[in-house]
Write a structure and sequence with these properties.
Helix 1 packs antiparallel against helix 5. The chain is built from seven helices and no strands. The two termini are 35 Å apart. By secondary structure, the protein is an all-alpha fold. The longest helix has 60 residues, at 4-63.
């Protein structure tokens, strides 16, 4: 009865930490799909870039040269498909500019520009969804950290109040605080098996 008020005052800090932890776990789960989606959409954009390279080679074979491929891929295909995430979108945007500005790329542009625009838009949307989910997770982690600080502060306050309620009575003070261990020790197992025989 003497400490009932402490428990009532502590409950919001306890419940706040539990809610913040649950929100952080939900935010972690919510990030899984956007992260995976970026990888798949990025792979689709890379396939479009490879299709553009194949089409450029076809156009060059017809013209007996390498003008289209060199105009679109001045550093080779690997330089266009190697980047990841926002870097992939940046490289694809530069490639799109070359498709628009290079006369040797006109035939390839006519056949592949729609596919490239669609793949770039899909990657842009996927990257934004991932960024938003990462931002939500960061906020949830910060909220959990704040709730944890409130919990620890309230817990410390209660410990001090209990010491004041029962001064010089360490045994009584210790009744109010559980010691939590990650795993039971071998001594605990031996005590449990020894107890029935005693």
């Amino acid at each position: 009865p003497e400490t009932q008020g402490l428990g009532t005052a502590f409950k919001p800090a306890h419940d706040g930490l539990a809610a913040a932890r649950a929100a952080r776990e939900l935010a972690e789960d919510a990030l899984i799909e956007p992260r995976a989606n970026v990888r798949f959409v990025e792979a689709e954009l890379e396939m479009v870039l490879r299709d553009i390279a194949d089409e450029a080679h076809r156009q060059d074979r017809r013209a007996s040269g390498e003008l289209a491929f060199k105009a679109i891929f001045p550093n080779g295909l690997d330089a266009e498909v190697r980047p990841r995430g926002p870097g992939q979108l940046t490289v694809a945007t530069a490639l799109r500019v070359r498709l628009d500005s290079q006369p040797a790329a006109a035939a390839v542009k006519e056949l592949k520009l729609k596919d490239l625009d669609a793949a770039m838009a899909a990657l842009g949307s996927a990257l934004e969804a991932r960024r938003m989910a990462e931002q939500a997770l960061g906020l949830a982690r910060a909220n959990e950290d704040g709730a944890r600080e409130t919990f620890v502060s309230s817990y410390d306050s209660n410990a001090g109040a209990i010491r004041q309620l029962f001064p010089r009575n360490r045994a009584r003070q210790n009744l109010y605080f559980d010691q939590i261990r990650a795993e039971p020790s071998a001594d605990d197992d031996q005590q449990e098996t020894a107890a029935p025989n005693a």
